Amino acid sequence: MKKSLILTLLLLSFSSFSFEWISNGGGTVIGNGAGLVESNFQYAYDSLKKILPHCFQKNVCDLLDEEKKIIKSITTIVHMNSDKEDRLVFLSEKENPGFFTTGVSEPHRIAKTFLNPNAPIYINTDLLYKSAGQPALSFQDILRILIHELGHQTGEQGHASLDILGGKVALFSEKNTNYYQYKINNQQKLTFTVTNFEFPVKSSIVIFNWHNDVAVDLSEIIILGSECNHRSESFAGLEVINGHYSINDQGNLSFEAWINVECFESFSGQSFIYKRDMSIDLDENYKIKGVFIK
Ligand SMILES: [Zn+2]
User: Fold this and answer.
1) Which one, 103, 176, 240, 254, has the greatest CB density within 10 A?
2) How many A from CA of 74 to the centre of ligand 1?
3) Can you point out the beta strands (E) in 37-188?
C-alpha cells in the first residue's frame, strides 16, 4: 500500500510557527532579536535528548567512566529543563560589561552558568555572528559549549575536562551528520542538515537553514508523514538517507531523500522497514512550499 501525504496544511501556518518558535521555544531571548545561531542553540539543547543516549549507550563517544557519570547527569538535566523558559538566556557583554568575565582560568567567555541545574546558561550574543552577519558558530561548536556549561550544572568544576567531553559529543554528532548545501549566489546559500541517531530508536533531525536567517526543524513533520503500512504495526523509528537536490518542471528547487520507516508488528513480533520517497519543495523565493512523503 502506498500512501501519499501532502503536508501543506501543516505548512500553511509554517512561517508564523517558525518565528513564534524562535521567540517562545523554551528560551528567553534578550537583545537584538533571535537569529539563526540563537535558534540553533535551542535546537542543539533539545537534540541532546537524542544525541546523549546514543552516545552513552553504545559508547560510540569513547567515554571514560567519570565522563559517563557526567553525561548521565546532563541527560537528566536536559529532560528536567525541557520546558523551562530561561534554560538559555542570551545577552550582550557590551551591554552588561563584566558579566561574562570570570577570571583567568577561563578567558574566552561565550557562555556561563553556575554549578546548579536550575541556573540558566547565559550566552554572550556579541560572539555569535561575524561582522558581516554570518554565524560564527557551527552546530557542533554549539554542542561543545552546551556540554561544557551543562557539565558545570552537574557540579563538575574543571573547565578543561568539560572541553574534552564537549569535543567528544560534538565529534560524534558530526560523524552522524550530513550537510546538503545549495548555493543560490555568492552571498546566499541554503542548507539541509540531516543527523541520524540509532538509540534508543532510529531517529533523524532534519533542519533547514535559509539565507543564514531562519532555521526550521522539520523532524516532527517528517515523523507525522511516515506512517506504517498496516494498522497492526506501530512506528518504531526512521532514518533519512541519500539526500540530494533536484529542479522540478517549474524550475524550482526540491530537496529529496529516502526515508526508511521502521515498524513493529506486535502479533508476529517482527520489525519491517518501509522505504519512502521524500521531497521538500521550495518556491521561487526558496521558502518551503510543502513536504511530500510517498
Ligand atoms: Zn567552564
Assistant:
1) 240
2) 15
3) 88-91, 111-112, 121-124, 177-183
CB-based contacts of 176, cutoff 8 Å, min separation 6: 195, 196, 197
* CA–CA gap between residue 159 and residue 24 (Å, rounded): 31
User: What does the pLDDT look like over 51-107, one tens digit per residue?
Assistant: 898 888 878 899 999 999 999 999 999 999 999 999 999 999 999 988 888 666 665
* CA dist., res. 79 & res. 224, Å (int): 22
Kindly state the helix (H) or strand (E) to which residue 276 belongs, with its residue range. Answer: strand 270-282
139-173 residue pLDDT tens: 889 999 999 999 999 999 999 999 999 999 999 98
Cα 215 to middle of ligand 1, angstroms: 28
Q: How far is the CA of 178 from the centre of ligand 1 (A)?
A: 29
Separation of CA 155 and ligand 1 centre (Å): 11
**Can you give the residue range of the structural domain that contains 266?**
5-14+178-293
Global confidence as pTM: 0.72
Q: How many domains does the chain have?
A: 2
Q: How far is the CA of 213 from the centre of ligand 1 (A)?
A: 29
Spatial neighbors of 271 by CB under 8 A, at least 6 apart, are 236, 262, 263, 264, 265
Residue 140: CATH number of its domain:
3.40.390
Note whether 168 and 246 are same-domain residues. no
